[in-house]
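Q: For a teaching handout, I want to show students what a protein-ligand complex looks like in token form. Below are the inputs, and the small molecule is glutamic acid. Please produce the holo structure.
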Amino acid sequence: MKTQEIMARLQVKYPGESEYLQAVQEVLESVEEVYNRHPEFEKAKIVERMVEPDRIFTFRVTWVDDKGEVQTNTGYRIQFNSAIGPYKGGIRFHKAVTPSMLKFLGFEQTFKNALTTLPMGGAKGGSDFDPVGKSNDEIMRFCQAFMYELWQCIGPDQDIPAGDVGVGGREIGYMYGMYKKLARQYNTGVLTGKGATWGGSILRPKATGFGALYFTQNLLHRAGKDIAGCKVAISGFGNVAWGACTKAKELGAKVVAISGPDGVCRIPGGITSEMIDYMLVMRASNRNKVEDMAVKFPELAEFEAGKKAWSVPVDIALPCAFQNELSEDDARELKANGCWCCCEVSNMGCQPGAIKFFQSNGILFAPGKAVNAGGVATSGLEMTQNASHISWSGKEVDEKLHFIMDSIHAACVKYGEQPDGSVDYVKGANIAGFMKVATAMLEQGII
Ligand code: GLU
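A: Here is the structure, written as tokens, with glutamic acid included.
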């Protein structure tokens, strides 16, 4: 495989799609050596096919705001790869959503889903709709208008969307309600992240955060360390950060910082259960301000505007918010303050310079596609429940999730172990996911 040549071609074809190109480059660099040992991959042009989405749907979404004004956004669904199962991946509502962003996420999702051990292909969707400052009614009207177009493209054996940034249980509820009305079918298998009383998995809201901590535990265990007593910094206060805080606290770690787009909240005594509960209120308010935590708990938390969670001295950094949220400068600051581990929970949360810095300075690092795969894995379990009309308890799902995260860690070690005994988790995750998808593509012929 000629990574440079493929990248040069993509750069000409997709100028400006920097996030997508960044994601492709990382995967190609990781798998090149293994790929070159398989001439049958080269012959079938596996990589050239894999970097292009199977198809992209783009549609107009028009809705009416609370003032009676007509608003128009753009909706997308990118069905990236269905070699190992139906398309699966979240829907993101964020003002910065572009086809490039969703392409990078759909590409990453393909490898992540392959890591879960479950049969799911990769997809991503969303809209440039900005939930910040929107009322509940506006959110509902937008979700309904979005589904009015999307419903024709999805189905339980075709494409199964879920939540992502800006889309949680409430939004999935509104979308499912509209799907049901249009399709005239109670087809629970069409979306995951549903409410627990109507086909959802009781563990799904917390699953990404829980899974991330199970993976982190595995990684620390292999390095001879223990999470109990460690200080942790977490970015964000959505579903993912909430689940991560809950499990980190349960495992005896101390979450001493959370952050938002407005700044950081330092919590010297460690986050409390009441504060973790309050994160849900903050998310539902659509204000997108972490300062609200310090206003609610002035004795426990202190807010500083314009600063990131990475400015607080910690042992472990867990980016849980958005892509490229941790720069090389942030990585340097973390190290200078004593940090020795970073598990990326957000998709592509660390910039390439930060990853290189971590890896060349002996800081344990694992990429989002491995660390956060527990979310989509639990979606896969929800699909199984829906298809077989059964319902597992939270405990049963948690056990399965734990087992899946252990397996993902083992796969990363299998493909990423270095001669000195350390593990390159980036390489390990990329090769493990790639081998599975590439083999399936090869076996299914030239399509
Ligand atoms: N959006 C989540 C992710 O990035 C979950 C996707 C899903 O559950 O389908 O993996």
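A: Two things your students might notice: The longest strand covers residues 70-81. Residues 88-90, 162, 164, 192, 347, 375-376, 379 surround glutamic acid (CB under 6 Å).
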